[in-house]
Amino acid sequence: MDQQDSNTTKANVFPQQAVVDDGDYPDLRIENDLLDSADEITYHEDERVYRLKYDQSVDTPSVAVVAAVAAMTRTDPMALDPLYSAIDLSALDDLFATSPTNRRRGQIVFRYSGFEIMASTHGVIEVNPR
User: Fold this and answer.
1) What is the C-alpha to C-alpha distance for residues 100 and 25, in angstroms, rounded to an integer?
2) pLDDT by residue (tens digit) across 21-45?
3) What is the DSSP letter of 123?
4) For the chain, how far is it from start to end, CA to CA, in angstroms?
5) Model pLDDT for residues 54-88, shown as the tens digit of each residue
6) Which of 49, 89, 97, 102 has the fewest CB atoms within 10 Å distance of its CB?
7) How far does CA 48 lie from the centroid of its chain?
8) Which value, to the nearest 10 degrees, does the dihedral of the CA atoms of residues 42, 46, 114, 79 take?
9) 93: CB partners within 8 A, 6+ apart
10) 70 with 77: CB under 8 angstroms?
11) DSSP secondary structure, 59-120, as one string
12) Which of 6, 11, 3, 7 is nearest to 27 (CA)?
């Protein structure tokens, strides 16, 4: 993972705007078998968003979104609503697919499981709990 800047807090130090408001801070480690290229979500206090950086050549954006939401809600990924109920999975993954001839730039924002999700072409998933 990249070295954290001064405006970034490791995910295991969850701010008061915690998604799971049960008086305990959730552990935002990604399940080892869900994503191969990332293992944690960081909170960016200045933007008030949670950010997952992953390698697009290893994992798909659709899997990264599910991993992030599952970690934030402390829910088994299989127990979440299907991501396809919020967005076309093939379109999402194809939009951000990497190849020598496909270097698209941009982002897409959508709602999933009560969160605003932003997926970008540079391998970042942002989850906004508002």
Assistant:
1) 41
2) 333 334 467 765 788 888 888 888 7
3) S
4) 26
5) 998 899 999 999 999 988 888 889 999 999 999 99
6) 102
7) 14
8) 10
9) 60, 61, 62
10) yes
11) S-HHHHHHHHHHHHHT--GGGSPPGGGTS-HHHHHHHT--BTTB----EEEEEETTEEEEEE
12) 11
CA dihedral sign, ordered 101, 106, 124, 80: negative
For residue 130, the one-letter residue type is R
The C-alpha angle with vertex 49 and arms to 48 and 55, in degrees rounded to 5, equals 150
Is residue 108 within 8 A of residue 119, CB to CB? The reply is yes
Encoded tokens for 114: 């009560």
Residue position matching structure tokens 């194809």: 94
The 3-state DSSP class for residue 26 equals: coil
Quickly tell me which residue has 């951000």 as its tokens.
Answer: 96
Give CA separation, 40 vs 34, 54, 91, 102, 106, in Å.
12, 10, 25, 27, 23
